[in-house]
Design goal:
The protein has 280 residues and is mainly α. Helix content is 68%, strand content 7%. The protein is built from eight helices and two strands; from the N terminus they run ααααβαβααα. It has a two-stranded antiparallel ribbon. The longest helix is centred in the C-terminal third of the chain and has 68 residues.
Length: 280
């Protein structure tokens, strides 16, 4: 406005500057609303959303988003995932149960030989009391034994059950391989996402630095009358976008690290979380 009053800038520049200010104020209002929404979501996660004392409290982060490169190996990650994922352990139990069932059904196809042996005691006398006494006197003791051999002929039901059990075992093995392949794909995607976000951080950091230099240059040019307020506003907007992208890249990187821990099945261990099974 001062430059327009003294005649170093055209009056249109004042309108452009006022339009830029109005647009930025609108962005501030929207951003403040987004902050309140995120605060409510955080309180809900912390189970504090119904607390009347904290309903209007503003959450101020004390720590800034940090970035530390984490060296992640795909092969090592796949190995850890296959050792820790509960789905793999569950499939291992299914295979063991299926093989036990195969052995059980196979036994039904074999001949059956039963051996029976024992001792009988009999009591013979004129009355009940004497009969009981004679039974324990070993006067009428007798031994016996027997063999029973069963040879299945045809036995279609047992053969059918055996074939069915073998098919179920193969299906369980296939399911296990499918689960393992899905885990491998998940791990590879998670590792690639970490590497991608790490490169995003580097690129967005460089873009933010360039945007800062451009804004400084435009401000210097504007002071000497070699630039317009529109160019300064554009440089400010570009810097804000670059800063946002740089912050989002770091946040996405942290999220991708947590996602990798989940995919590996080590998220509880890495965060020192212990589930106490009390049996209730």
């Amino acid at each position: 406005r001062i430059q327009v009053d003294v005649g170093t800038l055209a009056p249109i520049e004042l309108l452009v500057a006022e339009e830029g200010v109005a647009s930025q104020l609108e962005g501030v209002v929207v951003a403040e609303n987004d902050i309140k929404d995120r605060e409510d979501e955080l309180m809900q996660v912390m189970n504090l959303s119904n607390n009347p004392i904290l309903s209007d409290v503003s959450i101020v982060p004390l720590d800034s988003v940090s970035f530390q490169v984490r060296d992640v190996s795909i092969n090592e990650s796949i190995k850890i995932a296959l050792e820790n994922r509960p789905e793999v352990f569950e499939q291992g139990l299914d295979i063991a149960n299926a093989r036990i069932k195969v052995k059980q059904e196979k036994n039904q196809l074999l001949p059956k030989l039963d051996f029976e042996a024992g001792i009988r005691y009999q009591g013979l006398a004129g009355n009940k009391g004497n009969a009981i006494d004679r039974a324990f006197s070993q006067d009428f003791q007798g031994e016996f034994f027997g063999l029973t051999l069963e040879v299945p002929l045809g036995n279609r039901e047992a053969r059918s059950n055996y074939s069915k059990a073998k098919l179920e075992e193969k299906q369980t093995v296939f399911n296990t391989r499918k689960v393992e392949q899905e885990i491998v794909v998940e791990v590879r995607k998670a590792v690639r996402q970490i590497r991608t976000n790490a490169e995003r951080i580097k690129a967005s950091k460089k873009a933010k630095e360039l945007s800062q230099e451009r804004l400084k240059a435009e401000e210097k040019k504007f002071k000497v009358g070699r630039s317009t307020s529109l160019e300064v506003i554009r440089a400010q907007a570009d810097l804000a976008v670059s800063e946002g992208r740089a912050t989002n890249a770091i946040v996405d990187y942290q999220i991708s690290l947590g996602n990798l821990d989940a995919v590996l099945g080590t998220i509880l261990e890495n965060n020192n979380i212990i589930i106490d099974d009390t049996g209730i």
